Amino acid sequence: MIEQQHPRTGGCPMRPGTDAVPLYGAGFSDDPAKLYREMRARYGTVAPVLLDGDIPGWFVLGYRELHQVTSNPELFARDSRRWHAWEHIPEGWPLMPFVGHQPSVMFAEGAEHRRRAGAISDALTAIDQFELRQICERLADGLIDAFAGSGETDLMVHYAARLPLLVIAELFGFPATEVPELAADIAASLNADDGAIAAHQRVAARMQRLVKARRARPGADVPSRLLGHQAGLADEEVVIDLLVMMAAAQQPTANWIGNTLRLMLTDDRFAVSLSGGRRSVGQALNEVLWHDTPTQNYIGRWAARDTQLGGRRIRTGDLVILGLAAANTDPQVRPDFSEAGADGNQAHMSFSHGEHACPYPAPEIAEVIAKAAVEVLLDRLPDVMLAVPAEDLVWHPSLWMRGLVGLPVEFTPAYTPIPAMGTPGALYG
Ligand code: HEM
User: Fold this and answer.
1) Res 275 pLDDT > 80
2) Smaller CB count within 10 Å for the chain: N or C?
3) How far, in whole angstroms, is CA 83 from its chain's centroid?
4) Res 420 pLDDT > 70
5) Nearest Cα to 200, choosing from 246, 253, 251?
6) Which fold would CATH assign to domain 1-101+296-345?
7) Does the beta carbon of 309 sit less than 6 angstroms from any atom of ligand 1?
8) Which atom of ligand 1 is nearest to the CA of 106?
9) Closest Cα to atom 35, ligand 1: which residue?
10) Residue 320: CB within 6 Å of ligand 1?
11) How many whole angstroms from its chain centre is CA 345?
């Protein structure tokens, strides 16, 4: 428990245990907003922290400091091979999937990053937003068909967690018959067990086959646009960047949907809209990005030379963690939600900022998916309500993602068409 204000003297991240906050172990993430408040009160805008295994890093809580870090990619760089702590990282370190260098857009820097990220932006910009909305509605309807007749479901498990991947799979041109296995392998690849690596390899093999097929016969899909882009990307580059996009899109968008449904089902201000109004869906989506943003923290950046940040001395090769949710609640910048809500204010850090931010137009694509998900659900099941008290909803114990384990609801059973073969409802059961 962090209690008092301390002067900003201690906290060298290379001397674990001196003055740093352990961000691991039971209970540390039960109430992240409280954790960030306490860290801010004690350390100010940049706090020394210890990750799993007492690995040190700097946690950026201040909005201005986060802006400074993300706007200076030469100083706070993405290539994790700069880290001076590699020799201390144990085998099987749980955060390895986030920091282990891969030759993808995520770890690329400078001109190479612009080449990769530019191709991604162009390939995503070519997606027609109107068609995307139609795809989302059709796939959302298919998922709802599978549970509408029963009068109850878990919206997180059977809806929010599934829809984004279905949409991405269609935008990538995966055959519908492959999608259930793809979804199962992606879920298995996120588990902390022995099957995770094999599942990830199956997903990668599937992506390789898709890229090979599109190289031979291009279609109207994201892989074909990347392959045909003037950046001249090699097949391996396209495969790894598609894998990054799929992972980057799936879980955050699923949590954006889940967190928005939770807000609308638990907050009286949205009760009217649940039975008809539509304006407030956009408002709820935006409010979630301020209060319960799906990617609450992001790891990270590595200092390219000695510098200062928030009054701290940062050394070359130090790890810097982006406290996106904490920056959103920085009292220096936080808008007053008490009267107007978050209406229209999109100055949050939820998609990060700068060169490595979530690439344009990915946030818009996520918004089309999330908005369609909420609106179609409310159209189909207008009297949907929580099946458990709001305080019984459980958040995943993750420092990185902010999402619910489950969202049990009940509603008047609705008519469902007999699922046709090939609809997502029929495939998922
Ligand atoms: C609610 C949904 C989403 C959230 C909250 C989110 C948030 C983020 C964040 C915080 C980053 C890291 C930025 C950084 O390093 O500074 C990121 C990167 C990225 N996101 Fe998103 N994202 C979302 C949806 C999507 C979607 C739908 C796509 C693709 C269709 C996407 C593709 C990417 C890619 C490719 C990167 C890596 C960019 C780079 O390193 O240059 N994201 N996203």
Assistant:
1) no
2) N
3) 24
4) no
5) 246
6) 3.30.43
7) no
8) 40
9) 245
10) no
11) 20
Look at residue 419 in the predicted model and tell me its pLDDT: 55
| pTM score of the predicted model | 0.92
Q: Reply yes or no on whether the pLDDT at 223 is more than 50.
A: yes
Residue 1 has pLDDT above 80, yes or no: no
Does residue 13 line the site of ligand 1, with CB under 6 A?
no
Task: Report CA-CA distances (Å) from 156 to 23, 153, 375.
Answer: 26, 9, 15
Report whether residue 285 contacts ligand 1, using a CB cutoff of 6 Å: no
What does the pLDDT read at residue 158? Answer: 97
**Contact indicator for 406, 154 with CB cutoff of 8 Å:** yes
Q: How far is the CA of 250 from the centre of ligand 1 (A)?
A: 10
Q: What separation in Å is there between the alpha carbon of 361 and the centre of ligand 1?
A: 10
CB proximity list for 165: less than 8 A, separation 6 or greater:
179, 182, 183, 186, 246, 250, 254
Is the Cβ atom of 300 under 6 angstroms away from ligand 1? no
The C-alpha atoms of residue 200 and residue 189 are separated, in whole angstroms, by 5
Residue 298 near ligand 1, beta carbon < 6 Å: yes
pLDDT in tens, 202-222: 999 999 999 999 999 999 999
Reference 143, options 129, 123, 163, 125; nearest CA is 163
Average pLDDT over residues 88-112: 95
Does the CB atom of residue 171 touch ligand 1 within 6 A?
no
Q: What separation in Å is there between the alpha carbon of 317 and the centre of ligand 1? A: 24
CB-based burial label for 314 (10 Å; 0-12, 13-18, 19+): buried
103-129: per-residue pLDDT in tens? 999 999 999 999 999 999 999 999 999
Q: What is the pLDDT of residue 245?
A: 97
pLDDT of the residue at 422: 47
Question: Where do the CATH 3.30.43.20 domains begin and end in the chain?
Answer: 1-101+296-345
Locate the ligand 1 atom nearest the alpha carbon of residue 355 and give its number.
41
List alpha helices for 58-174, DSSP H.
63-71, 96-99, 110-125, 129-148, 155, 163-172
Q: Is the CB of 183 under 6 A from ligand 1?
A: no
pLDDT above 70 for 2:
no
CB-based contact 64:76 (threshold 8 Å): no
The residue contributing the CA closest to ligand 1 atom 30 is: 362
CB of 348 within 6 A of ligand 1: the answer is no
CATH fold of the domain at 103-280+350-429: Cytochrome p450 (1.10.630)
Helix (H, G, I), strand (E, B) or coil at 6: coil
Give the model's pLDDT for residue 407: 98
